[in-house]
């Protein structure tokens, strides 16, 4: 792949979705697998919109690791920076589709996930510095050695334009919220864009109030803050002003992956030079489409689908 436009860093896995709806996980008899993981889904979403993307991550030396690489390439995402952790297994995530808007997840990532073992030797340093858009996540600093590696990546990047932090707080990956606030907060001083929901902003900057959270994010030097407010839309804030973008009502089938579709569209909009409100409207539509479908990576919309909804 030449002229890479988007590099995401972090979580990858195999999502297993029940093929029987509205039943407890214990009663599910068959599952369908799909590519998953926040950083991975964002790269796929960006690729669906025509962007040349890649993921910096790791898998295990197993069949699921082979599947991850093949699936990425099938979606048009480069697997050139997907390494292998010899002693670990590729993560698997089971999803229970009840409630559909916020389905419970069961992560199999023990003793640790390969993506949390990223070291300096795994990083394409020239790409990290020069790629037009770099995407990092809060989960990426939840454990060592990935925490130190992602910090070095951001320092090497030097807060270049379009360095995006997905707050991506998942409590099962952290010993406590205070540790998460310290580590995610450090990254805020090294990125230009921050995006997250109210729970994630509360962890990152100490408040779930969207306007106050936006104030605190901007005070840390980001040029664009997006706070997702669920059914109330998305708050878009820059040093010049702020706006609320209304949601797109849909019948929710599975809320998983909607935020990642938002992220891929955010990346596309930033690289396209759109104004912040247009970016948020486009990203909102992408997220709504994925929420109305089952699966994550496989459900990412293309430009025609987003524009039709808009």
Task: Provide an overview of this structure.
With 310 residues, the chain is an alpha/beta fold. It has a single domain (6-309), classed as UDP-N-acetylmuramoyl-L-alanine:D-glutamate ligase (3-Layer(aba) Sandwich). Helices cover 35% and strands 21% of the residues. It has ten helices and 14 strands. The strands form two sheets. Strands 1, 4, 5, 6, 9, 10, 11, 12, 13 and 14 form a ten-stranded mixed beta sheet that branches. Strands 3-2-7-8 form a four-stranded mixed beta sheet. Strand 10 (163-166), helix 5 and strand 11 form a beta-alpha-beta unit. Helix 9 packs across helix 10. The longest helix is centred in the C-terminal third of the chain and has 16 residues, at 276-291. It is globular. The two termini are 31 Å apart. The relative contact order is 0.14.
Question: Separation of termini?
Answer: 31 Å
Mean pLDDT: 94
Strand content: 15-25%
The CATH architecture comes to 3-Layer(aba) Sandwich
Strand-and-helix sequence, N→C? EEEHEHEEEEHEHEHEHHEEEHHH
By CATH's scheme, which homologous superfamily applies? Ribokinase
Number of helices: 10
Overall tally of domains: 1
Compute the gyration radius: what is it?
18 Å
Number of strands: 14
CATH topology, by name, is UDP-N-acetylmuramoyl-L-alanine:D-glutamate ligase
What summary fits the major beta sheet? 10 strands, mixed
Give the structural class: alpha/beta
- What shape does the CA trace take? globular
CATH class: Alpha Beta
**Helical residue percent band:** 25-40%
């Amino acid at each position: 792949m030449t002229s890479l436009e988007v590099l995401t860093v972090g979580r990858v896995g195999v999502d297993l979705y029940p093929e029987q709806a509205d039943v407890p996980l214990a009663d599910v008899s068959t599952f369908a697998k799909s590519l998953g993981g926040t950083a991975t889904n964002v790269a796929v979403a960006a690729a669906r919109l025509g962007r040349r993307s890649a993921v910096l991550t790791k898998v295990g030396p197993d069949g699921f690791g082979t599947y991850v690489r093949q699936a990425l390439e099938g979606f048009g995402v480069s697997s050139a920076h997907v390494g292998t952790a010899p002693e670990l297994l590729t993560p698997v995530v089971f999803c229970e589709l009840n409630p559909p808007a916020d389905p419970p997840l069961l992560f199999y990532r023990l003793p640790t996930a390969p993506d949390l073992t990223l070291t300096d030797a795994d990083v394409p340093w020239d790409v990290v510095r020069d790629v037009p858009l770099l995407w990092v996540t809060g989960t990426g600093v939840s454990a060592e050695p990935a925490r130190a590696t992602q910090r070095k990546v951001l320092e090497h990047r030097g807060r270049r334009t379009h360095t995006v932090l997905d707050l991506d707080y998942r409590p099962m990956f952290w010993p406590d919220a205070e540790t998460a606030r310290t580590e995610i907060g450090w990254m805020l001083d090294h990125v230009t864009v921050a995006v997250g929901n109210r729970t994630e902003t509360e962890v990152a900057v100490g408040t779930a109030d969207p306007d106050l959270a936006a104030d605190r994010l901007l005070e840390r030097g980001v040029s664009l803050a997006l706070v997702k407010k669920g059914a109330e839309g998305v708050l878009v804030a820059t040093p010049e002003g702020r706006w609320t973008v209304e949601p797109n009502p849909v019948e929710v089938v599975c809320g998983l992956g909607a935020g990642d579709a938002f992220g891929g569209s955010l990346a596309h909009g930033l690289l396209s030079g759109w104004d912040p409100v247009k970016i948020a409207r486009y990203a909102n539509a992408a997220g709504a489409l994925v929420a109305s479908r089952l699966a994550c990576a496989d459900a990412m919309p293309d430009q025609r689908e987003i524009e039709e909804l808009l």
